[in-house]
């Protein structure tokens, strides 16, 4: 038999025990075979020749008993008894194996066994429920994504896109008769069909709207040349040429700008067509006369 | 205080660097920094000079000048995706006629959305859910009492819901969304970011009314994008009530889907004013699964893999 008291005197009270964990109020024992987990004279596995524990491995509970005769062979010192999965039967097994053992050890073994079965039940229940999966975030990746999102937002120009889409839908008539401005679509249709006769009047109207500063120039020229030529055809062409002349500086000035306004855009388009067809002929003709 | 290094002695007015000289070879940090600054200035000057010259040439040529070069953007340079949908593609049309959304698009079902969150939602997420419910007509918010989604789904189907939307929360902020089309439709998992609630919007209008909004879906070009577009479209009822003048926009740009909710008014036939109402958020698709929500055994149509996207900056999936 080992000298239990001497061992306890040494490790428990005076010198060092590597399994002992001291806290302010209590001492704990980190030995894996300890039955209660506290550092006591009766719970110390090193300082008791007659000792038993319950331990669990992968859901199976075992009763470990210390055989003090083999104290010289620590690897073979503990005897293992597999306990049944049935709670009551296991308790009986503990009683049978620890039949003449001190009350304390028997009681604590059973308490420990109860606790272990309770937590095993809980584990099994939890695995059936939803499991929360923690996904690690990489800071660098998150920062990169954030940056990409900001740039994408800037590139998207959402307000413009939405406005454009809504106007498209209005043009296509998805709104039906709710809004009373069908003029835009009507104008476009007309323009596509008849270019010369329609666009003349339109151009003059637009001229009035936009070229307020240049109106005087146009008027004077008109008076000069309309006196000379009374044919409708020539006058029409004169008007066009005058418009061309004064549109040129304006066009070059606004070349840098995007033709946003529909009116200007239309005028430019019409202007280009007429220019190529008729610019050269009428001008020398009117000047000659 | 600073002495020019010997290379510059012969050209005091203009800096000329010998071809083998590199600024990084100067050991002294201060001098190296100054040299680098000078180098940068030099480069900037050259750049400005080139620009001026070009502009002059352009003005001189007048009308005959070559057209302005279009600057390269990521959208211009986008790698052509072979799954881009051609509007006349028959196969796609056939697929769309027979997929899980065909019931909706054939006007057989009306959307009914169930919005819920992950466990124990915080205030922000709850408010977000409530605002989403006002944006989407016929949406119901339910508190998730730790229920498993797999068990929730059959109950939803029994009560006639067509969509299940689960907002996932992390650190008191919504950061994920699972959108599950119900009878047996695809499940999409998104990353949610930049959530702005109504309070935080500047110059916002009054609360959205009960009218069904119109839907705008922009830039969903590929097959995957198409299915996404249909997924979002099926959230809203078929017939938008134009009286309400509300529009919900899902705009895809570089694989980020921006959601906005506006009220619009046509000032004349060429101008429209929009006022942002409801919540705004950004979505990024993380995975698309074929059946209803089943993370373990589901069949994934598409999963976001970061290393695929890191290869080329100009390749996008949606």
From TrEMBL, chain A:
It is found in: Nucleus, Nucleolus. One of its GO terms (biological process) is maturation of 5.8S rRNA. Residues 193-211, 236-250 have a biased composition (Acidic residues). Gene3D superfamilies: 3.30.390.110. GO terms for cellular component: nucleolus; preribosome, large subunit precursor. Residues 6-119 form the Ribosomal eL28/Mak16 domain. Its main location: nucleus. InterPro entries: Mak16, Ribosomal_eL28/Mak16. Keywords: Nucleus. Signal peptide: none annotated. It comes from the Eukaryota. Residues 190-259 are annotated as: Disordered. Belongs to the MAK16 family. This is Protein MAK16 homolog.
TrEMBL record, chain B:
The keyword Electron transport does not apply. Gene3D superfamilies: Probable brix-domain ribosomal biogenesis protein. GO terms for molecular function: rRNA primary transcript binding. SUPFAM superfamilies: Class II aaRS ABD-related. Residues 42-56 have a biased composition (Basic residues). PROSITE patterns: BRIX (PS50833). Residues 57-72 have a biased composition (Basic and acidic residues). It comes from the Eukaryota. Residues 42-81 are annotated as: Disordered. InterPro entries: Brix (IPR007109), IMP4/RPF1 (IPR044281). Residues 111-294 form the Brix domain. The keyword rRNA processing applies. It comes from Oncorhynchus tshawytscha. Keywords: Ribosome biogenesis, rRNA processing. This is Ribosome production factor 1. GO terms for biological process: maturation of 5.8S rRNA; maturation of LSU-rRNA. One of its GO terms (cellular component) is preribosome, large subunit precursor. It holds the Pfam family Brix. It is found in: Nucleus, Nucleolus. May be required for ribosome biogenesis.
């Amino acid at each position: 038999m080992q000298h239990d008291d001497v061992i306890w005197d040494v490790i428990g009270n005076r010198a060092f025990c590597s399994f002992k964990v001291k806290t302010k109020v209590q001492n704990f024992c980190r030995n894996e075979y300890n039955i209660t987990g506290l550092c006591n004279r009766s719970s110390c596995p090193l300082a008791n020749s007659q000792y038993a524990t319950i331990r669990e491995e992968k859901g199976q509970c075992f009763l470990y008993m210390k055989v003090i005769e083999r104290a010289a062979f620590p690897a073979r010192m503990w005897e293992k008894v597999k306990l049944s999965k049935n709670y009551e039967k296991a308790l009986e097994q503990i009683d049978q194996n620890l039949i003449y053992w001190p009350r304390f050890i028997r009681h604590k073994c059973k308490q420990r066994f109860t606790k272990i079965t309770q937590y095993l039940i809980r584990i099994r229940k939890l695995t059936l429920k939803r499991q929360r999966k923690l996904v690690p975030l990489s800071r660098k990746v998150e920062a990169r994504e954030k940056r990409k999102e900001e740039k994408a937002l800037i590139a998207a120009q959402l307000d413009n896109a939405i406005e454009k889409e809504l106007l498209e839908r209005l043009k296509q008539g998805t709104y039906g008769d709710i809004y009373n401005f069908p003029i835009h679509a009507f104008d476009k249709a007309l323009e596509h069909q008849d270019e010369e006769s329609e666009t003349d009047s339109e151009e003059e109207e637009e001229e009035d709207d936009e070229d307020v500063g240049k109106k005087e120039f146009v008027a004077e020229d008109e008076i000069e040349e309309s006196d000379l030529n009374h044919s409708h055809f020539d006058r029409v062409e004169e008007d066009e040429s005058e418009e061309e002349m004064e549109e040129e500086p304006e066009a070059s000035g606004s070349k840098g700008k995007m033709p946003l306004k529909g009116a200007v855009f239309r005028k430019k388009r019409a202007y280009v067509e007429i220019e190529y067809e008729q610019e050269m002929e009428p001008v020398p003709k009117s000047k000659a006369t | 205080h600073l002495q020019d290094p010997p290379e510059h002695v012969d050209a005091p007015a203009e800096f000329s660097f010998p071809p083998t000289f590199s600024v990084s070879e100067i050991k002294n940090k201060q001098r190296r920094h100054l040299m680098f600054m000078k180098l940068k200035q030099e480069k900037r000057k050259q750049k400005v000079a080139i620009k001026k010259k070009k502009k002059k040439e352009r003005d001189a040529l007048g009308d005959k000048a070559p057209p302005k070069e279009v600057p390269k953007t990521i959208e211009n340079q986008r790698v052509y995706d072979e799954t881009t949908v051609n509007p006349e593609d028959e196969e796609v049309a056939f697929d769309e006629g027979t997929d899980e959304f065909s019931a909706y698009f054939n006007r057989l079902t009306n959307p009914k959305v169930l919005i819920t969150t992950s466990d124990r939602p915080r205030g922000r997420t709850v408010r977000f859910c409530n605002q989403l419910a006002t944006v989407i007509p016929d949406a119901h918010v339910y508190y998730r009492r730790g229920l498993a989604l797999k068990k929730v789904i059959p109950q939803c189907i029994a009560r006639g819901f067509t969509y299940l939307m689960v907002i996932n929360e992390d650190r008191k902020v919504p950061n994920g969304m699972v959108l599950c089309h119900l009878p047996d439709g695809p499940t999409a998992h998104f990353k949610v970011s930049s959530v702005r609630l109504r309070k935080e919007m500047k110059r916002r209008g009054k609360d959205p009314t009960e009218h069904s909004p119109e839907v705008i879906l922009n830039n969903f070009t590929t097959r995957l994008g198409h299915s996404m577009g249909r997924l979002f479209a099926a959230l809203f009822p078929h017939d938008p009530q134009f009286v309400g003048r509300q529009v919900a926009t899902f705009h895809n740009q570089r694989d980020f889907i921006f959601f906005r909710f506006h009220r619009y008014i046509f000032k004349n036939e060429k101008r429209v004013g929009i006022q942002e109402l409801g919540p705004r958020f950004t979505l990024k698709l993380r995975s698309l699964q074929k059946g209803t929500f089943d993370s373990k055994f589901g069949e994934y149509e598409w999963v976001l893999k970061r290393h695929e996207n890191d290869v080329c900056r100009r390749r996008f999936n949606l």
